[in-house]
Amino acid sequence: MASDTSTLRSSTLQRPAAFRSVGRSILLTLPIALWALLMFTPSLRNAGRDEHIGALVVIVFMTGLFFLMMRTGETYRWRRIFFVALGFLFPVGFIAALLAERGSMSIPISRMVSGDTPFCFMVTPSIILPAAFAKTIIFPGSIVSSGSHPHSIAPMIGIWLAMTLVLGKAWCSYACFFGGIEEGFAAFAKRPRLHRLVVRYGPVLRLIPWAILVFVVLVSAAIFEPVYCMWLCPFKAVTEFPAVRNVETAIQMGIFVALFVGLVVVLPLLTMKRTQCGFFCPFGAFQSIFNKINLFEIRFDRAKCVDCTLCQTSCPTVALSKESIAEGKTLLNCMKCGACVDACKKDAAVWHLKGTAVAVKPERARLLFLYGAWAMATMFGGSILANSVATMMHWLPGK
Amino acid sequence: MRARILSILAYTGAGFTLLVAACVPFVLMGVFSNEVAHAGLHIDAVYTGGAVARTIQRNGYRIVVYQPVQPRMLERIEPFVQIVFEPADALPAQVNDEIDLDGDGRPDVRVSFSVPADADAKMRGDVTALNGKCVSLANVSDQSFSRMVVRSGNKIVVRVPVR
Known about the structure:
Low-confidence stretches of chain B: none
Order of helices and strands of chain A: HHHHEHHEHHHHHHEHHHEHHHEH
Distance between the termini of chain B: 73 Å
Number of domains of chain B: 2
Number of domains of chain A: 2
Oligomer: heterodimer
Largest sheet of chain A: 2 strands, parallel
Strand order of the largest sheet of chain A: 1-3
Strand order of the largest sheet of chain B: 2-3-4-10-9
Radius of gyration of chain B: 25 Å
């Protein structure tokens, strides 16, 4: 199996370097370049030098990566560069903002009662039932933004809903800044050490996020507490967490750190998979539902497929099974990262627009998907990256 | 024929998705945010303290007494009443107030705390129950959502468990 992964890497590297001509690639990249300019220039009118540099870096970065997608025909490799950058730079900007505002990553109870906790999309499944049936949001934030509550609930849900219409489950590979952290650790490994374990137990492991989703939704509604946020979120370890003030909050902190180290650092390094996303994240499971209403998907041309399982090996979240490949489909939790398409030597794995014939015009489907996905990535992830770059510029010596 | 119609619908849908993507930052985010903001939702009373019951004016500051917050379903909190002293910068260095929580004209608790000059300093205070309606708290700081004396912006928030 380790050799499978080596083959996968070499197959990715051996793809033709020039899928498209430079001129045609530039033409296809132009809409994204204009979009990036449109996203970042209006907000820079009263901004400082560091913000200008941050925006410029992101415009060049996002446009450049899209150009490479067009030029090489590969999606996963270039998307991963953006996504890992997003994952590793998001905490930089976020933690810097927390330290500047309150001098600590921990959120004291006084901040919770004043509604100062930034709202995170991961808590969305936990709040759904109380919001629907009791009109109550069980999160210590604010519903609308104001000066002291800039990251409030309504705007965050608004962004998530609007982007989900475009991305579906692809939110997890083009927008989720947390996923980038484990994708980064997964990319560090030379070869997977626990690959057999993942293959053997994959069918069971991929059900765990659904179980956690059901648990989190029901228990949160029963105890009127965002259970995932308070007890199970690995990313509290690199963002913010309830201040340790008693045994319960100390246990919570211990769980956050253990889950982060285990699921986001160690297991991705050992398996080369996004283990938190694939085997734990209830928000990811929730987001999978939106794949049903999204028009874009990955399909397999059975006439070309030789059942080499390279696609299965390459999938970061175990969203493929032998059965699903035999049916020419991915599983519901496919996040459309493009790893399987890029890995397939026979061009059997293809981008597909629902309602059209499979493998007839896969590049057209890929383009249509990527324009929407990259536009969202540039708008959302790009603004986070620009903020983080500007933050780092502030730290440069002589500032 | 069916395949052709499906294909036309699919490409129309894909075009619509791109249109939606273009509208996200300019229209849709705002529309969805407004919908959520105006959906009649409110933050759980455990965090906000609930609805205001009455305001008591003191010399230079006011005391806002909230209605008791009761746990819902299996919620893991003690029932409590929130009392807010504001503005914090108008409070005397030492506050010692008897407060009528239920509006029956008789004081139910005595709240005492020092107001630190440093707004970020950790606060501590005492709550003495004057009858059986509340629980006394000694040297309380930020023990839980039901038991606290904390500074939150320009307010001092006191929460007292009620029986």
